[in-house]
């Protein structure tokens, strides 16, 4: 059985508020890190975390699922559709990395964008073009992304990126074109101490995951690369929002308005 099947069982359990299944699918000593925090280290705490999560993300549904599988690891890029504290619908793009051993999830890292991200026309066109790609080569994808991680000037970036390449970052902005992508990446604030390093890289046929952190035990960001015709066309940047000092609850109350029947007088 593919490890994707185990991950899909978890997503189905989340969609239907099956907390017993959520707990059972995790190893007793699972480590779960999310953009909302805190870091959890047992399956009971993970189930309790989802009880709160699904109260604040009512009618939760994972859509637009995309996968990369590599041995024990499964990467899922998805869009969460849910209803907020005032029962208004919203969407949030997320990226989650799983490690599955046997039938149990032993590690999870859940990165997110800010809610209700709206793309301009060029960015949406680039994303649509990337979503239409089929096939590809894992080795070529890995080679291309490795080269992109080492690029430091616009001339070299032009060899690797599509001229209309897009970097989508809900926190720091959207950039179009290789030169602007480099400029935005270099402008992202970094802590005074430590060096950001790649902690994980998982290539797919035409997509790739790259995780970065300063302290490997504290994940910071994850990029989802999309390849079109041998060039990088889209980079979606997901964050551990609490790790970079962004309040994941900003502008959103945590006190749900309770639904009630209004009777005539």
Summarize the structure.
By secondary structure, this protein is of the alpha+beta class. It is about 30% helix and about 35% strand.
What does this structure look like?
This protein is α+β, with helices and mostly antiparallel strands. 28% of the residues lie in helices and 37% in strands. The chain has 7 helices and 11 strands. It has helices at residues 3-15, 19-25, 43-56, 121-131, 138-150, 154-160, 178-187, and strands at residues 26-34, 58-70, 73-83, 89-101, 104-112, 161-169, 173-176, 197-203, 207-213, 221-228, 231-239. It has a 6-stranded mixed sheet, with helices on both faces. A hairpin with a 2-residue loop joins strand 2 (58-70) and strand 3 (73-83). Helix 1 packs antiparallel against helix 2 (19-25) and helix 2 packs antiparallel against helix 3. The chain is globular and about 60 Å long. The mean pLDDT is 92.
Helicity, in percent? 25-40%
- The coarse overall form would be globular
Helix-strand makeup class: alpha+beta
Q: Please state how the strands of the largest beta sheet are arranged side by side.
A: 7-6-11-10-9-8
Number of separate helices: 7
Mean pLDDT: 92
What does the radius of gyration come to? Answer: 19 Å
Contiguous low-pLDDT stretches (5 residues minimum) are none
Strand content: 35-45%
What pattern of helices and strands is seen along the backbone? HHEHEEEEHHHEEHEEEE
Q: What composes the largest sheet?
A: 6 strands, mixed
Distance between the termini: 59 Å
The total of beta strands comes to: 11
């Amino acid at each position: 059985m593919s490890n994707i099947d185990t991950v899909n069982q978890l997503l189905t359990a989340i969609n239907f508020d099956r907390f017993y299944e959520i707990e059972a699918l995790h190893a007793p000593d699972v480590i779960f890190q999310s953009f909302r925090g805190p870091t959890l280290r047992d399956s009971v705490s993970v189930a309790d975390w989802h009880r709160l999560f699904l109260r604040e993300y009512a009618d939760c549904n994972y859509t637009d699922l995309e996968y990369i599988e590599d041995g024990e690891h499964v990467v899922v890029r998805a869009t969460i559709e849910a209803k907020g504290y005032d029962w208004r619908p919203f969407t949030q793009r997320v990226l989650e990395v799983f490690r599955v051993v046997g039938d149990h999830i032993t590690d999870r890292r859940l990165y997110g964008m800010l809610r209700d991200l709206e793309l301009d026309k060029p960015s949406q066109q680039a994303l649509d073009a990337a979503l239409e790609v089929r096939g590809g080569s894992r080795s070529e994808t890995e080679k291309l992304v490795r080269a992109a991680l080492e690029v430091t000037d616009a001339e070299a970036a032009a060899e690797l990126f599509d001229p209309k390449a897009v970097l989508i970052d809900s926190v720091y902005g959207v950039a179009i074109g290789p030169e602007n992508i480099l400029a935005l990446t270099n402008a992202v604030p970094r802590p005074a101490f430590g060096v950001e390093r790649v902690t994980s890289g998982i290539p797919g046929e035409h997509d790739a995951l790259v995780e970065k952190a300063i302290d490997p035990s504290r994940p910071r960001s994850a990029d989802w690369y999309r390849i079109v015709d041998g060039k990088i066309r889209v980079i979606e940047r997901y964050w551990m929002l609490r790790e970079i000092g962004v309040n994941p609850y900003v502008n959103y109350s945590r006190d749900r308005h309770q639904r009630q029947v209004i009777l005539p007088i």
